[in-house]
Input
Amino acid sequence: MTLGSTWRVTVSGFEHVERVSHERPLLTITWHGRLMVPTWHARNRRLVAMISASRDGELVARLVERLGFDTVRGSSSRGGTAAAMQMIERLKNGQIGAMICDGPRGPRHQMKPGAPYMAIQASADVIPVAFAASSAWTFNSWDRFTVPKPFARVHLLYGEPIPHPGYDTDVQEFAQVLEDRLNDTLAQAESLAGGGAMPTVGGRQ
Output
């Protein structure tokens, strides 16, 4: 039995993904510390994820590929331009994209320009995704990586789609829109889960 199979997961809003993905390009976004449950839920759906070319990114890439994701590898410091072009092409061709928007090193919960840039260029709508759990371990890492405990009640929330803003949109302005919406989605998920503090692994919370 895997850890994920023990969770009692309530999924809200996935119908947005199903609807939008049949109508136009779609990019889903989440924060680095909250990638575990969205990745588990999206397994074997052939999403394409952009993963850092770093050593840590290699571990993430191996994990998501085992779960049925396609990957492109690159970051702002290594191979980012080529990877972004690959992601844009995949989105235009109808594959749902998945982006971790504050990785690979943070700052935590601050939107980097990659996701908004790719969404603009691919004419994609964007759906923010976040989860919270009734009980979880939160690691003392830069991203506060969160792992629901066995048999936890988990609330996974797919937010309302953010429409493509137009090709002439300023990337930084759109990044702020996406950051605010993703943080709002996380706050909603935490409210559904009860909003309690989670124990920290490896240090104080």
